[in-house]
Each structure stands twice: as structure tokens, then as C-alpha cells.
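Hi C.,

You asked whether I'd gotten around to modeling the 311-residue construct. I have! Everything is below, sequence then structure, no commentary in between.
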Amino acid sequence: MNTEKPYRPMTGWTALLGIPIAGAAGLASLAYGAANSSPVFIILGVPTMIAAFICLFGFMAVAPNESRVLLLFGDYKGSVRESGFFWVNPFYSKKKLSLRIRNFETGSSSLPDEKNEVGQVVKSGLRTQSKPSKVNDSEGNPVDISAVVVWKVVDTAEAMFEVDDYEHFVEVQSEAALRVLASRHPYDSDDETVSLRGNPDEVCEQLKADIKARLDKAGVDVIEARISHLAYSPEIAAAMLQRQQAQAVVSARHKIVEGAVGMVDMALDHLKRDGIVDLDEERKATMVSNLLVVLCSDRHTQPVVNAGSLY
């Protein structure tokens, strides 16, 4: 496995001063040799001028958060991460690689640049619009899900040599990890089971760990992974919405009844403790029934005043 090796190049300003001087010296030697018919100065001048010309290809400028991977006839020599103006062996192949933080949304794809016959870019590459992935959750329900992944290159040698196209590798592996994660958990859960909708932070941490494990061999570090879209698929969305509404109604009714029973019990205890009224069992049952109707009804109750005796 290739691992990154730091390379410290020579500053380009020194070479920028020395190479023109060497070229001028070679030109002067050639001119002097031609004027005086001296083959020695001609032999010295021609190689010096050729060497000075070749050395011009050793200059390179590295911008912040960029790097250069240096190769000499296929042999990896090291990576330059420091920004600035440098000079290296002109026979080095200098591969540019960005160290910036990047992000993308799963379900989208990158279109490469279109080039003509001479290699000029005639149309820049584009990224297609994201489409949520359709996958079955652990209960077999089809859901639409997508995630945003934030990542950066941390090992230039692995990113350059261990995978064919590290950007495409990140996209494919992130999509695969998201599908596997969605199939491990239900969309929603009523118990303590981890669900996609009910435990977003925990699910996102699992997604980040899964993607990082898949991308470790590509020299890429995952900074953050967050679910950006989560919904039932359209074919079952209406039925699932009805189920969620029914569950919400049952849960709300449960809370209402629980609170109403507590209030009735508190009212009876208060009446008995303060001796406000002495109720027999039948009147207690009537009072409990009336209070529960008032407290549990979803509409305003209409009071009925009894002008005579209860019996």
C-alpha cells in the first residue's frame, strides 16, 4: 500500500534567478566560441543552454489547500502540501490534488468535462440533481432517503494510487453505506428500537462510521454525514400517514384519559378531605361519569341543570 511521503522542494525564487544566468552564460559561451572558432566554448554553451531550457519546466506554484504528487518515471517521490512557489526536478510529473473540504449529496452524479480532439475543454463537467435512493427499511417498507457527506483528502498517495477515481469512489461507497444503514433500521418505532426518524443523531453517527470504514483505503476522511431527506415512498405514503395519524390520536387519547382520571381522583379527595359534601357510591359514580365526559370530550359540553331531586 502506498502511503504519503512529505517532500520539501527548493524555493522557486532562487531557481528563477539562477536559470536565466545559466542560460545567458551558455549563450555567451556559444557566441564567443562561434566568433573565435573555438569548439570548446561551443560544446560548453550548447548543453548549458539546453539544460537551462529544461530546468524551466521544474517550476510549480502550489495554492493553499492544494498539493502536488511528484512522480519520476512512474516512481513515487513524495507529496508537496506547503503552499508557495517552488522548483523541483523538471523530469518530475506533478499531479495536482485538492485538499479542500468537499461535500456532495447522495443520489447525484458527476458528469466529466467534454474535450475536443486536441484535449481542450469545450464543456465543463456538471453535477446532476440529487434523487433520493429508494430502499426497504428493516420492516420491509420502501423509503426514500438521501444524505449529505462532507469529506476531504488526508493521504494524497492513497487517493492517487489506491483507487482509480477517488471522487467517484467516495460517491459510490457513500451511497452503498446509506442503503445498508437504511435496511438495518425501521423508519419509525414505538419502542426503544433505534429508528431512522426517531434517532437522527445516532443514525448519522452510524452512517459516518460506516462511510469512513469504506473510504479508509482511499486516503479520505469523512468529517460529517447527515440524512438530508427521509420519507416513505409515494406508493405507501398515504397509508403510512393514516397509520401515523391513528397512532397519534390513540396516544393523545391515552394522555387525556390518564390526566382526566387523575383530576377526578383529586376532586373526590378534595371534597372528602374538606368535608364539602358527603357523597354516596351512586352519586360518586355519577360525578365521575360527568367529569370524565367533560374532561375527555373533544367538543364543548352542554351543561344540564337538575332543578329537582336526584331521585
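If it helps when you're writing up: The domain at 102-116+125-232 is CATH 3.30.479.30 (Tetrahydropterin Synthase; Chain A).

Thanks,
B.
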